[in-house]
């Protein structure tokens, strides 16, 4: 029986050292291999020329550099937005999106294939839960984005200027932000999500700064409580989307388990302990949660127990096919923001990216998963 290959991206340096010794190699080979994976970001064992040929052959037989297979990359916004779809061994699919801005570059990664949380405005929810991603599978999406970013300066087209990127010099060499806002709920896969942060943060490897990670949750209170005690300064974003329990429960079933008051208590405790600013994500849906009395309710609720470090990100909905929901008008989005600001709640409108590549997050991956299943009969 063929055993599944060992995913070397799942292993931190101590674990990789143990594995390398188990392969009968001296321990220092682990450091070489680790460097090739995380510093040089090699995609193939054949490209690791400092490893002896017999060891490379052994690696090719027994190990893999992650298990995600890149199915396609779609470009938008003049080449500044790139969405990749990856297949897992069982043909489940996940997405990652690279977004380049003047002087910064963000990758949004998936932590699960599909998602069990059932948010009604989300394409990924329609897939249901498929599987958790391993730490290496999550981190591999970041490595893809770093490699893709290197191509961007020589691969821009005219649409890029609309986003204030006038030429290659405006494109950073390194990713500046990793956000866990793709498919899945990271706190539902807490351990693997958190291990992916450690792998990417390791100064001996990819060396990505802790303050440049953002994890986004639908509001799983136990995850927020856990993160409070984390020594790393990871940013926290909460998908809020309504200040009204009835509306929020309708949009996000998780609200029945952790209603808004409990969620906000956890967030206040988090900011009191960590002194870190929390972002609230608020997707604006026409006629659903975009009335100005909703803005009033939101401000009252956020401020009722005193100010704490926070910020509201308003995101016009990226409509999901057949959902019957549409995004709020531009005027309403701006009114909503101004209203919050006037009440003392810092708010910004998130610049939308990737409208020209496909619809909402999860839709492209979902379509490709269906195609793969059909191709396999
Ligand atoms: S919005 Fe996020 S948590 Fe909700 S179903 Fe979609 S992927 Fe899951």
Q: How is this structure best described in words?
A:
This protein has 377 residues and is α/β, with parallel strands linked by helices. It has 2 domains: 6-64, Orthogonal Bundle (DNA polymerase, domain 1), CATH 1.10.150.530; 71-375, Alpha-Beta Barrel (TIM Barrel), CATH 3.20.20.70. The chain has 12 helices and 14 strands. A 10-stranded mixed beta sheet has the order 3-4-5-6-9-10-11-12-13-14. Strands 1-2 form a two-stranded parallel sheet. Helix 10 links the parallel strand 12 (278-284) and strand 13 (310-316). The longest helix has 17 residues, at 135-151. The protein is globular and about 70 Å long. The two termini are 24 Å apart. The model has no long low-confidence stretch (mean pLDDT 91). It binds iron/sulfur cluster (SF4).
Summary tags:
377 residues, alpha/beta, DNA polymerase, domain 1, TIM Barrel, 2 domains, ten-stranded mixed sheet, two-stranded parallel sheet, binds iron/sulfur cluster
Please outline what is shown here.
By secondary structure, the chain is α/β, with parallel strands linked by helices. 35% of the residues lie in helices and 19% in strands. The chain has 2 domains: 6-64, DNA polymerase, domain 1 (Orthogonal Bundle); 71-375, TIM Barrel, CATH 3.20.20.70.
**CA-based gyration radius:** 21 Å
State the separation between the terminal residues, measured CA to CA.
24 Å
Number of strands: 14
Give the DSSP E fraction (strand runs of 2 or more residues).
Answer: 15-25%
**CATH fold-level topology of the largest domain:** TIM Barrel
Number of helices: 12
Number of domains: 2
Within CATH, the superfamily of the largest domain carries the name Aldolase class I
Assign the CATH class of the largest domain. Alpha Beta
